[in-house]
Every structure is written in structure tokens, then in C-alpha cells.
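Q: Sequence in, structure out?
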Amino acid sequence: MAISKTWTSDTAEFMRAESASDVMMGEAGAGAASDPGAAAKPAPKSKAQVVRGKTMPKGAPTSETSVTKVKKTRPTETKAEMVLKKLRLTKGATLHQLIEATGWQAHSVRGFLSGTVKKKLGLNLTSETSKDGLRRYRINDTAAVV
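A: Exactly. Output:
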């Protein structure tokens, strides 16, 4: 508490009230209430508020509060479904078209065609080179799988 040069009746009344509260609180309260440094110190932060030396913003979820989890929804069409849809077209699809549709690398698309389409799903996958020199892959539903 800063000491002012002027002494007013308000200051005297405050001092009397403070000394009266010290008497009511006893010895332990008297030292704490009269310590001018105690009022200047901020309250210690809980562990939930301090993260790596920074204070969390108000309202940020802590471990003590329950956070509602948002249920993740499945995409409308998976990448595998997109590839199968393109392979079922009459013209089929080129490797480059499948790469653009899925974002996979070339070896991943070829692995999907070999491992998933042919082996796991048992579909008849045909590979043809067209007149323009591009290899087209398509699923031939009419032919039986051998």
C-alpha cells in the first residue's frame, strides 16, 4: 500500500477497520493482512492453466473439463470406391487418371489394382494399350475370373 502525504478521515477509518479485522482473525491473520507484498502477488496458476510456461486462454478445455467429441463421419465416397467406379467405365481409366483421382503414387495405384482388385475382390481386371499409346485398366464384368 502506498502512503499518501495527505491524511484524510477515510484513511483513518480504513486503518481502524483493518486493525479490527486483524484482532478478529487472530495472530495468523494479522501477519498476512498487514503484509503489503501479499496483496500485490497474483494467485498461483494451477497445472491445468500452465502449459510449457504459457498460460492457457480462458475457456480452453483442460483435463478437468469434459470435452465433447465430434463423431467423425465417413466420406461420401472412399478412394477405393472412386477407383472401382472409374475402372467400371467402358473406356476404363489410365494410370494417370487414377493417380489424379486418389492422390496416390503410381506404385500404390498398381499395388491396389493387383492386390485388392484382382486378388482380394476377385474381379477380372484387364489392361489394354490404346491407339494413343496409353495403358488403360478396366474391370471386365462379362468375362469370368480364372
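The longest strand covers residues 125-129.
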